[in-house]
Design brief:
- With about 200 residues, the chain is mainly α.
- The N terminus is likely disordered.
- The protein contains 4 helices and 2 strands, in the order αααββα.
- The protein has a two-stranded antiparallel sheet.
- The protein is globular and about 55 Å long.
- Helix 2 runs antiparallel to helix 3.
- Helix content is about 45%, strand content about 0%.
Length: about 200
């Protein structure tokens, strides 16, 4: 008999002779504590400073693996992807999908589904990169279109990429500092006794 043939014991009478069929206590399932938490969507706008830093570092590590493993050109994943929210969100979603597809509890066809999604994502990434104007050796902020009644968008200038890894570190430091400042302002308005925010 294989593990796949296992049928749970349905007799309510247990080995200790007690009948639990009419027990008012519902049975509970305790997940194995040694299993990792399943991937869940990441909302980059709502993360704490600490979570933001950890997730950016993990995503950067995975994106580096992805571009090398699949030989992706800068027209799909440019060095400064982290400075373009449209690329950050797309790559983050692709990473989460990959984590789910390669989870040990997943079925064997899940990686094939991920590769189909990956093909779609590559097309979107090419579009985002072309729109944003970031390249292998130069970068500029994504141009914004001002709607009627809004102030004109500030002009954008291209900069030469000198050291991508150092720029990524500087980016994380700046983003974490901004998030910490926002957290401080939020908690500074909290009542010390109740914890409620004004």
């Amino acid at each position: 008999m294989s593990d796949d043939d296992y049928t749970p014991h349905t007799n309510p009478e247990t080995a200790d002779g007690q009948d639990y069929a009419d027990s008012p206590e519902p049975s509970t399932f305790d997940a194995r504590p040694d299993l990792p938490e399943p991937p869940h969507p990441i909302n980059w706008n709502l993360m704490s400073a600490n979570d933001l830093e950890a997730e950016l570092l993990e995503l950067n590590r995975w994106v580096d693996w992805l571009r090398r493993t699949y030989g992706l050109p800068a027209s799909v994943i440019p060095p400064m992807w982290h400075r373009h929210p449209e690329l950050l969100w797309e790559l983050s979603a692709l990473h989460l999908s990959w984590l789910a597809a390669y989870d040990p509890e997943q079925n064997a066809a899940a990686p094939l589904g991920w590769h189909r999604d990956f093909a779609d994502a590559r097309a979107r990434l090419r579009e985002w990169v072309a729109t944003s104007g970031t390249r292998l050796d130069r970068d500029r902020p994504t141009r914004q279109t001002s709607w009627p009644g809004e102030r004109p968008a500030p002009p954008v200038e291209e900069t030469t990429i000198v050291n991508r890894d150092q720029d990524f570190v500087d980016f994380i430091i700046a983003e974490v500092a901004k998030r910490q400042a926002a957290e401080y302002r939020f908690y500074a308005g909290a009542d010390p006794e109740t914890g409620e925010v004004d």
